[in-house]
Amino acid sequence: QVHIVESGGGLVQAGGSLRLSCVTSRSTSVLNPVGWYRQAPGKQRELISSLDIGSTYYRDSVKGRFTISKDNAKNTVYLQMNSLKPEDTAVYYCKVVFLFKEYWGQGTQVTVSS
């Protein structure tokens, strides 16, 4: 079992930055892959970034602006989001995989005003 608590969302102006955090109940060193998803109103949930052993993925729309990372000492997965745009507005979810089972965070709202 893995429990997840997300934080870091909020309201920010276009061009601003936010850092999302995903604190897990197990060491992130054993959680692979980890990823961040988002869901905008009326749209399907989409993968925006993932981190696995030896590989990192970013959706084209966030490449160069978002950075995913893990701090195993803090059991935390981060998503640093820079140069935010109004189209980044969504609920952001953290997902981790442990022993082939997926665990999701509760979501954190990110709103980017123009």
Count of alpha/pi helices: 0
Task: Work out the strand percent.
Answer: over 45%
Helix content, binned percent:
under 10%
Average pLDDT works out at: 96
What structural class should be given to the helix and strand makeup? mainly beta
Question: What is the topology?
Answer:
Layout: E1 4-7, E2 10-13, E3 18-24, E4 34-39, E5 46-52, E6 55-58, E7 66-71, E8 76-81, E9 90-98, E10 101-104, E11 108-113
Parallel strand pairs: 2-11
Antiparallel strand pairs: 1-3, 3-8, 4-5, 4-9, 5-6, 7-8, 9-10, 9-11
Structure write-up:
- This protein is mainly β.
- Helix content is about 0%, strand content about 55%.
- The protein has strands spanning about 5, 10-15, 20-25, 35-40, 45-50, 55-60, 65-70, 75-80, 90-100, 100-105, 110-114.
- The strands form 2 sheets. Strands 2, 4, 5, 6, 9, 10 and 11 form a 7-stranded mixed beta sheet that branches. A 4-stranded antiparallel beta sheet has the order 1-3-8-7, with no helix packed on it.
- The mean pLDDT is about 95.
Tell me briefly what this model is:
With about 110 residues, this protein is mainly beta. Helices cover about 0% and strands about 55% of the residues. The protein contains no helices and eleven strands.
Descriptors for this entry?
single chain, 114 residues, mainly beta, seven-stranded mixed sheet, four-stranded antiparallel sheet, 11 strands, globular
